[in-house]
Design brief:
Elements (H helix, E strand, L loop, with lengths): L1 H12 L4 E5 L3 H13 L3 E5 L2 H10 L4 E4 L8 H10 L6 E5 L4 H10 L3 E4 L4 H14 L9 E3 L2 E4 L4 E4 L2 E2 L4 H12 L7 H9 L9 H13 L10 E4 L3 E4 L4
Parallel strand pairs: 1-2, 1-3, 3-4, 4-5
Antiparallel strand pairs: 6-7, 7-8, 8-9, 10-11
Amino acid sequence: MLWLTFWVFTLFLLQFMRILVVEDENRLAGFIQQGLVQAGHVADVAGTGPEGLERAATTPYDAILLDLMLPGQSGLDVLRNLREFGISTPVLIVSALTDSKHVVGGLEAGAVDYLRKPFAFDELLARLHIIGRKTAAPAGAEALRLADLVLDPLGRAVTRAGKALSLTNREFAVLELLLRNAGRVVSKTRLAEKVWQVDYDMGSNVIEVHISQLRRKLDRDFAPAPALLETVIGQGYRLRTDG
């Protein structure tokens, strides 16, 4: 079974995803988030139904992991509201409610899959991989463009002046966040929260290292073309839109 576990894990690593975990059990939510981040993905957590609905309605995700028993609003109501709002992000229900009534109800409300608790994390990864491979492009998956820079969120591809850039998952996530905020400063705190899912550590240089690597691939390798990535001293980083 070890080879199967390794195959599933390796296969999933090939596809970077942005995932929302809507789960009110803090320990389980933390476990899922940590596992997804270690697999190279970006994972946000919402602990209530209303918070999950707000995040899902305002941020483009590749998939949503949704518990049914949530404070404030049930997971089923969250799912129904998302579909009524026209938000088609794939939803994988993860619930301790295992009877067929809840499974059928969740699928009929618009979920693409149903995973019963307790579950093996490898199975969760495999199901997410299938969702990412089979579903249509999620909301917000259109290509992001700035000057001669193009980022394809769905295909996880980046080009500048028609030349493909080889980015790590972290570099891709940093660049996507900067592109979605082109012309605006993105602080180190926000980068830490959105890309690494941790509070910013003033004593760590991990963000600077990734920015330096990204700048080399994005700008230095294309000199004398205009540099796009700018450091705003004391504030953070931004992509220039002034040419």
